[in-house]
Amino acid sequence: MAMSTGDSGGPMSEINVTPLVDVMLVLLIIFMITAPLMSHRITVALPNANPKTTDTEKVEPMDLAIKEDGSLYLSDNPVTEVELKTQFAVAAGKSPQPELQIRADKATEYGHVRKILTDAKEAGMVHVGFMTTGKE
After folding, report:
1. Residue 98 sits in a domain of what CATH number?
2. pLDDT at position 21, please?
């Protein structure tokens, strides 16, 4: 605690900022040393884009509807799970791969949708989207 040398002999009412400045300078030096170490760069060899794919080439998406009872409709045509798995395998082999757009009834159990997603993933489908309605 700082003491005054004046006539009163009581404690000073001013704050001694010297220790604060010392601590701040030490912290500044620590941050100046450690900051360049945190910004190291890792080089990664990225794959080349598919040269066959062009922006003008349009691929029709696979439109899959799932009704509340679990019945499946691919492009508005009823299909079974076995037929759907074969369609997924064919679509997964195409280049570029079409997107699977799923339209599920909001009362459909999630188990039906999860089964379709699992089948699509096992077949190799990577582009999956969910169709929704806008705000009413």
Report:
1. 3.30.420.270
2. 94
Select from 108, 100, 109, 96 the least CA-distant residue to 131. Answer: 100
Nearest-Å Rg of the Cα atoms of the chain is 33
Question: Is 116 within the bounds of a domain?
Answer: yes
First to last CA, the chain: 69
pLDDT digits (tens, 9 = 90+) for 17-31: 899 999 999 999 999
CA dihedral 73, 74, 80, 86 (to 10 degrees): -170
Which residue is associated with the tokens 């450690």? 34
With tokens 């999956």, the residue in question is 128
Half-sphere exposure (CA, 13 Å, Cβ side) for 121?
6
CB–CB of 109/103 below 8 Å? no
Contact 126, 118 (CB under 8 A): no
Residue 115 within any structural domain of the chain = yes
Burial level of 62, CB count in 10 A (0-12/13-18/19+)?
buried
